[in-house]
Specification:
The complex is a heterodimer of chains A (134) and B (137).
Chain A lengths: L3 E5 L15 E4 L3 E6 L1 E2 L5 E2 L4 E6 L18 E7 L6 H11 L8 E6 L4 E2 L4 E7 L5
Parallel strand pairs in A: 1-8
Antiparallel strand pairs in A: 1-2, 3-6, 4-5, 6-7, 7-10, 8-9
Chain B lengths: L4 E5 L13 E5 L3 E6 L1 E2 L5 E2 L4 E6 L20 E7 L5 H13 L8 E6 L4 E2 L4 E7 L5
Parallel strand pairs in B: 1-8
Antiparallel strand pairs in B: 1-2, 3-6, 4-5, 6-7, 7-10, 8-9
The chains are: A mainly beta (134), B mainly beta (137).
Chain lengths: 134, 137
Amino acid sequence: METYLYFRGVANLAADDDGTAGSLLMPLSKLKGMTMGTAAITGTVTDDEDAFTLFFEPAGIGFDGDVDAGDNDVDCVIIATTSDNTPQPVMKAIVEAANSHPNSDGFITIFDSVTGESVHPDIEGVTTARASND
Amino acid sequence: MITKFLHVCTTATLADNHDQGGSVVYPVSSIKSIGMGSMAVTGVISASETVYHIAMAPMAINSTGAGAAAVLGDNVDVINVTMSTANNAKAHMQELIQKINSSRKTEAGFIDLYDGINATALIADIASAAVLYNANS
């Protein structure tokens, strides 16, 4: 079974319409790592006391096309937290939720601002940054 | 099957846990090798009696990337672990691999290798750790 992580950070259901904070489902197998701070698709990390970044293999970049400057880019999901400088419990909760199957169907909601679901109460928001191939 | 991840927080200062020098997490599937000595992102290894390296697939570089900054695409992320006991890497390696391959149901996949802020370590002999991280451009 493939596990997928779901993120949504929009203000309301009608705003669920883009790649900035709208519904995003990423395979757990494409999760490359997490780091404290707010990262760009280039991997550049900006100091941030209350946010950390999940890096994924980029969904919008294929193989063997034109060589573009952005081909090394990655997809990013930025998790905003209420607490400063203490991402460890939230990172751990994400890992534990991702491993919650076989008691789940493989669809893991990490954060959904519309329904209020969250794997940890310290998460207060989600934004995404998506790589493209041109 | 549980997907396990390694957590490392190199800083011991709470206020500094705000970037890649703070908490980082890698899937264990990103481990390329573990070896004695301190490794640079270029793969160059410097001899050390007390440091071993865990070479990782870089978290912030597309694994299929061949962009203009392709030279960076050759780099690896590295966790350099400093031991209190010299030449003790084999014992560390064994303990880490046992943890990675443990199937105890009480473990949910988050392996806290080293946390300078909370003064915790998977192996008591770990004195510190350093993470070498790569951006992709």
